[in-house]
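Tip: read the tokens left to right.
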């Protein structure tokens, strides 16, 4: 799907849910190098309204998965809580740490 740039409908931005699903799948497979590559490449493909907060969340989730809890908390503190779905994921990640 990513190799063929088949991640959006009708040439629109990549949806938040699709981005998060791919992120979680990479992390669950412990493919951390590919996660970082995915984040840096595809964060530009999501809506500009949420890209900055989604980037911070993605990096926090990656650091949490690598057991870098302090770094994950620092990144979470920088996130603005202005998107409902992301707010739920952020709080969920904070509870895990």
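Filled-in amino acids:
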């Amino acid at each position: 799907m990513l190799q063929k740039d088949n991640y959006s409908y009708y040439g629109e931005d990549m949806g938040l849910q699709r981005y998060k699903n791919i992120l979680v799948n990479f992390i669950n497979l412990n493919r951390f190098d590919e996660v970082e590559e995915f984040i840096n490449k595809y964060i530009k493909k999501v809506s500009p309204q949420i890209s900055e907060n989604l980037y911070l969340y993605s990096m926090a989730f990656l650091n949490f998965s690598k057991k870098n809890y302090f770094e994950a908390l620092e990144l979470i503190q920088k996130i603005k809580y202005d998107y409902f779905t992301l707010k739920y994921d952020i709080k969920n990640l904070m509870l895990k740490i």
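The chain has a mean pLDDT of 84. The radius of gyration is 13 Å.
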